[in-house]
Amino acid sequence: MGSFKRRMVQFASTLIGNGYFKGFAKGTIYRGKLKSFCFPGLNCYSCPGAYTSCPIGSLQSVAVGLKHQVSLYVIGLLMLIGTIGGRFVCGWLCPFGLFQELLYKIPSKKYKMPKFLSKLKYFFLTVFVLLLPALFTNEVGIGLPYFCKYICPAGTLEASLPLIIRNAALRRAIGIMYYWKLLLLGVTVILAVLFSRPFCRVVCPLGAIYSLFNRVSFYQMNVDSSKCIKCDICNKNCPVDIKIYENANSPECIRCGICMGKCPTKAIGSGFKTGKRRMEDEKVLDTGSGTHSCH
Amino acid sequence: MRDKVKYMFLMLSFILIIAGIYRGEAGEVLEKAIDICLECIGIG
């Protein structure tokens, strides 16, 4: 039931975020004022259906301009979302996360992602999103959105393909970069069939930003150590392959909650924890009858 | 301690958003996002 509810939320988020259907029909994009807001997940703002902006695209688009090298506005929005839910967005709201989860359902041999690769997303964030667009500029001081241009397959899927199909002028402008992006999307699709959420875990700079807030966010996962029997069922069902009983708020946890539904002893919980609520939890724990809060 | 940090981040995020809007960044984001990003779609 929880899994079905999450899937419905993922579809609803994708549809609401990309609900400008006229754009798909005409091969154009939405040009209204809602585009000054950022979508919480990775969702290309050149998608014909997108009502809002992609936060990673926006970070770069401000950095490549002449006025500012860092966007306080976008960083503030991401900090707000991260402080509230950490990587909750990754597990529940991100359209590209949903796309990868659906691909992983295709029957095939499945592989485990080597853990060290998860550090790479911080490299993509630092180099391709923050440094290159701000530092490598042309003679007049204008840079390029390096991550969008050279790395991001979400733009190819959500924007490039629907626009190219409907827009003849764009079709005529296709060059080598288009095929590079198409190749990247193809590789991402194949990897997403074989590995669980490969882009989220290895490449996504937005996931890298939200991961920094997992430990301090208001929304927290917790494990009742008195109930946990370390059967590892949580780990076997985890899409990002973490042992939640070892680190309930690991930076890799996307807060999808699959482990909560699978835990045979109901040892895993989650919720919004404020100072008052935490003290109440600790009081219950002292009496020996309550749940253990992980923080 | 962790509670203090989360409230600090919450406050800081509001300050950054307000400062960004004051610097005209919301307008900048809008200005860029209403045109098709050719780099994003592999044409620019």
**Spatial ordering of strands, largest sheet of chain A:** 1-2
Distance between the termini of chain B: 48 Å
- Strand portion of chain A: under 5%
Q: What count of helical segments of chain B does DSSP give?
A: 2
Alpha-beta classification of chain B = mainly alpha
- Counting structural domains of chain A, the number is 2
Largest sheet of chain A: 2 strands, antiparallel
Low-confidence runs of at least 5 consecutive residues of chain A: 282-295
From the spread of the alpha carbons, the general shape of chain B counts as elongated
Order of helices and strands of chain B: HH
What is the CA–CA distance across the termini of chain A?
A: 28 Å
Q: Name the poorly predicted regions of chain B.
A: none
Number of strands of chain A: 2
Subunit organisation of the chains: heterodimer
Number of alpha- plus pi-helical segments of chain A: 16
Helix content of chain A: 40-55%
Number of domains of chain B: 1
What keywords describe this structure?
heterodimer, A: 295 residues, mainly alpha, Alpha-Beta Plaits, 2 domains, two-stranded antiparallel ribbon, 16 helices, 2 strands, 52% helix, globular, disordered C terminus, B: 44 residues, 2 helices, elongated
Note down, in words, how this protein is organized.
The complex is a heterodimer of chains A (295) and B (44). Chain A is mostly helical and 295 residues long. Chain A is built from 16 helices and two strands. Chain A has a two-stranded antiparallel ribbon. The two termini of chain A are 28 Å apart. Chain B has 44 residues and is an all-alpha fold. Helix content of chain B is 68%, strand content 0%. Chain B has two helices and no strands. At the A-B interface, helix 3, helix 4, helix 9 and helix 11 of A face helix 1 and helix 2 of B. Chain A: It comes from Lutispora saccharofermentans. Chain A: This is 4Fe-4S binding protein. Chain A: Keywords: 4Fe-4S, Electron transport, Iron, Iron-sulfur, Membrane, Metal-binding, Transmembrane, Transmembrane helix, Transport.
